[in-house]
User: What shape does this take?
Amino acid sequence: MRMRAALFYFCFLFFFLGKSQPVYFENRYGSSYSESSQSVQQMADGSIYIGGYSDSVSQNGVFDPSISKFDRYGNWLWTKHYSSPESDYGFYLYVLPDSKIILVGEIGLGGVNGTDAQIIKTDSSGNLIWKKTFGGPYSQSIEYVDATADGNLIACGYTSDSTGNDVWIVKMDTAGTILWQKKLGGPLVDYSDYIKQTPDGGYISSAVTSSFGAGGTDGWLLRLDQNGDTLWTRTSGNQYSGGCQGVCATTQGDFILYGEEETSAGSWFNFFMTKYDANGNFIWKKNFGGSGSDAIFDMFEAPDKGFYGVGYSNSYSMGPLNLIFFKTDSVGTVEWKTIYGNAGIDIGYYLIPSMDNGFLITGSSNLPDDQYYLLHLDSLGGLTGINSPKIHDFDFFVFPNPGHDKIFISVPSQKGKLEVEICDMNGKVYMKQDINNPASFEIQIPPDISSGMYFIKLKSEKGISVRKFIRD
Assistant: This one.
């Protein structure tokens, strides 16, 4: 009897532990048409909702907002589309405390008539409850929505007139009735992409502005009171082009503005993070990235006061763009990076902590078609059993570049063994070679490599570093 009880207990424990282990995954899903997932939310039961848009209903380039549901293991359960005759987009999904779903975005008006802002409310199964639009003679759009402490909603986006776009801040109830709205901006193009309520009942919002700042387009940080009136604003940028994708409020009451910006005329985008205190005083700014174009699309504070971020990278990718997930310390110094994707275009748009002490990331993946992209990563940014290598961006130099028959590679900081690869933008490997004690070495360019751009990838025990090379 004791043996049977012990065996039963062992089997139960084995079953329970096996069932309770987190499942990490990298999933692409959708049709042979175009889809993109823009935001992700996880429920208390582990299930996952994705908000985005797709043209799989029209199959002719007319997009519809969409909501998809998955179980906690990444298994697709259903997708619902909310169609109209013109292209509509879902930009952000929020799940209310009563499990109803809010999806915000914009609806096309046809031809040159622009767009109206749109808000969709569904039940937990994605069945439409109501759909509302807000507009005027020009274009409007809602980019983001969140709950307020009084049970209402705060949203942001833009509203247009004959001179350009202005930031649009809207407070509404959960029935979609506008309580108040504010228009903020200057004579050129300004729009907001993120807003959160602050502990004092006011709001912090991020935006992009070409009306203010140093020139070109700059990041714009707006601190508002509980009625949406401006307390202070700050710009982050230079005379070149840039884009702000959001603001991260820290547990200490500071704010991190983040996105991408040029550092010289016509340069590739670099990641940027700019920190301000609660009163808008500048603390520090970091620009980082590689030799290609890099952008942060979402970010939140880590328990150790560092930051997790997601976006895209051309500097570290094996295709045109790959999804990049990274962690910095509390002053914006990168501690590690991981890349996900294939030889196409892969972008991470939204990032949240998962209930399994990992991370959920959603975005789009393109090879051969745009598809919804959903990842569940462990606490170090990897996939259980298929850990993505951390990118340890050690310095190495390629010369001459452009080159033709042979190139020299200098790796001043590495000792031991290196694996060298030359591959094209589709991931095809033309050469692979092991190098010992790689302070400086010569590589013969394979004769089957035609003129164009290629990637040189060095692998060491610490990780991977990538540089572009042009064969003339």
Observations:
- Confidence is low (pLDDT under 50) at residues 1-19, 385-389.
- The longest helix spans residues 2-20.
- The chain has two domains: 25-377, 397-471.
